[in-house]
Every structure is written in structure tokens, then in C-alpha cells.
Design goal:
The protein has about 280 residues and is mainly β. It has two domains: about 90 residues, Immunoglobulin-like, CATH 2.60.40; about 140 residues, Glucose Permease (Domain IIA), CATH 2.70.70. It has two helices and 15 strands. The strands form three sheets. Strands 8, 9, 10, 11, 12, 13, 14 and 15 form an eight-stranded antiparallel β-sheet that branches. Strands 1, 3, 5, 6 and 7 form a five-stranded mixed β-sheet that branches. A hairpin with an 8-residue loop joins strand 11 and strand 12. It is elongated, with a radius of gyration of 24 Å. The two termini are about 15 Å apart.
């Protein structure tokens, strides 16, 4: 459930030239290539042996001792090493790499924030900066003049500022997020942004902000790509499953819930990430 994040190299063992092949390290936690939420209390778990026994091991030391919390204080790629030494002075070291991620409430700095409806995403009014939810790559950023009828398919209504970015870390790595409508975009396509970095500014006029899951690199919503928009002139006249799912994500991050409209019987794709436990 907590897989994802940036790819990392496989764990490596570096024995001394004379170290017997039977001198081994078993490193259970942190796992090589795993990702952990910032601030999580993941403890180190490892053991050292020779010929399947610990009797010849005089030292088995890790970056932190067994049972102690590994470093998850800051976002990024971390390394963890264990060194085993036997009674003959032979030694071997095993090193793994793991990543630490964080998601933030993208609306936490918006003044006068007011949740509106859940549709293909979630609508909000207010004014102030819109933040990146996590470390991400900006895919699209700019302004589309309209017309309003095309929103949800190819563009946004005037004043149609819009930004699409792809999350790079954590359980939702690879998923796309859009923010559109009455915003001024402050980032450029291709830019890598950190969690909590400003990507746009919301203005206190109608139309309000809409934020949700995007289908990919374009301004198409995930709901429309899956043919889950509401039939009729307003594709957002019901609460799609994609909008409800994103609303749950926002609430997990501390944002207020939008209000439900009609809730059609729809499902998220098989294997869609679940919200991780809080640190």
C-alpha cells in the first residue's frame, strides 16, 4: 500500500575480500525501494548470521540500532546500512535505499475557503494560493479562453487558468491532478515542484476553483475519460466516483468536504491506491 515513489537501486552487499560467503545480513526493514510517509515510525529490523548461526557474530550494527526508528524526518531518498563482523574479523556491509514522501492540503493557505459541490472533482471558493499536493512534475500550465461548454473535455471556461501535474512520490505516484477555472497559474510545464509549493492563485470571483483527478497530460478530467460525467449540458451535475474519491483524499489532508449531489453507481479502477494510515 505504501509502495511507489522514485525508483531506487537494489540493495547491495559489500564483503571484505576474505569474508566467507556464509557471513550474511538479513535486512527486513527498511525494505529496499520502499517508500514511507514523512514522520512515520518505522523501526529497523535486521539480523546477522554465519552458517545460519549468530554465535560467530561479534558485531551487527545498523545506521540505527535494531528496534529504533529509521530516518523519516524529511522528504527524499535515504540510505540504510548494516555491517556484520565475525570472530575472525571478517566483515560484510549491506546497504538499501528507501524514499520518504509527504502530501499536503493544497487549500490550506486559501482565505475564506468554502467547499461547494463534488462533481468531476471538488469545487471551492475563496482567494489565495493553491499548493502542490506532493512532489510533482507540471505537465500542462496556462490559460484557455473558453468556451465554457468544452470544460471537462478539452479546456476550461473563461477565465480559464488551468494546471495539470503528475505526482512523483508516495502511494499516488504517477497519478494526475488538475486545478482549473478562476486561477492564475504560477508554474510552467516541465517544472518539478515540491509539496506545498504554490502552483496557482485563486481569485474571489465566479467561476470558482475545481480540483480533482486528471486523465493525463491534458485538461481532461479522469471522470470524463472513464465516461462518468453527468449526461446533459452540465457534465458536473452529479458526484462522480472520481470526484468522491478525490474529495476523500482532500479530507484526509485536512480540507473541508464538498457536498454530495446525486451519486451514480460507479467504481474506481481496480488497484487504485488507498489512503495510507496517518503517521
Amino acid at each position: 500500500m505504501l509502495g511507489g515513489g522514485s525508483p531506487v537501486s537494489a540493495g547491495t552487499s559489500t564483503p571484505a575480500a576474505s569474508a566467507p560467503a556464509s557471513l550474511k545480513i538479513t535486512l527486513l526493514s527498511p525494505r529496499n525501494g520502499a517508500s514511507y510517509p514523512r514522520g512515520s515510525r518505522t523501526v529497523a529490523r535486521f539480523r546477522c548470521s554465519e552458517d545460519g548461526s549468530t554465535s560467530a557474530i561479534v558485531s551487527c550494527t545498523g545506521t540505527v540500532p535494531r528496534g529504533h526508528v529509521i530516518d523519516t524526518r524529511s522528504v527524499g531518498t535515504k540510505s540504510f546500512a548494516v555491517t556484520a563482523v565475525d570472530t575472525s574479523g571478517n566483515s560484510v556491509t549491506q546497504t538499501v535505499h528507501y524514499s520518504v514522501w509527504a502530501y499536503v492540503n493544497p487549500l490550506r493557505a486559501v482565505a475564506g475557503l468554502h467547499a461547494i459541490r463534488i462533481d468531476m472533482g471538488v469545487d471551492y471558493s475563496g482567494s489565495g494560493p493553491i499548493l502542490a499536493m506532493g512532489r510533482a512534475r507540471v505537465i500542462r500550465a496556462g490559460y484557455v479562453p473558453g468556451p465554457a461548454r468544452c470544460w471537462g473535455r478539452t479546456c476550461a471556461p473563461a477565465p480559464g487558468g488551468w494546471v495539470v501535474y503528475q505526482l512523483l512520490d508516495g502511494p499516488f505516484a504517477g497519478k494526475y491532478v488538475y486545478a482549473v477555472e478562476n486561477i492564475t497559474v504560477t508554474v510552467k510545464a516541465g517544472q518539478i515542484v515540491r509539496q506545498g509549493q504554490r502552483i496557482a492563485v485563486l481569485h474571489p470571483q465566479s467561476p470558482n476553483l475545481e480540483i480533482g483527478w486528471a486523465a493525463g497530460g491534458d485538461a481532461e478530467t479522469f471522470a470524463v475519460a472513464r465516461k462518468h460525467e453527468c449526461p446533459g449540458p452540465d457534465p458536473g451535475c452529479w458526484s462522480s466516483i472520481e470526484g468522491r474519491n478525490f474529495n476523500s483524499f482532500l479530507m484526509w489532508l485536512g480540507a473541508p468536504s464538498g457536498f454530495l449531489q446525486q451519486t451514480p453507481s460507479q467504481r474506481m479502477p481496480h488497484g487504485w491506491p488507498r489512503l495510507p494510515p496517518r503517521p
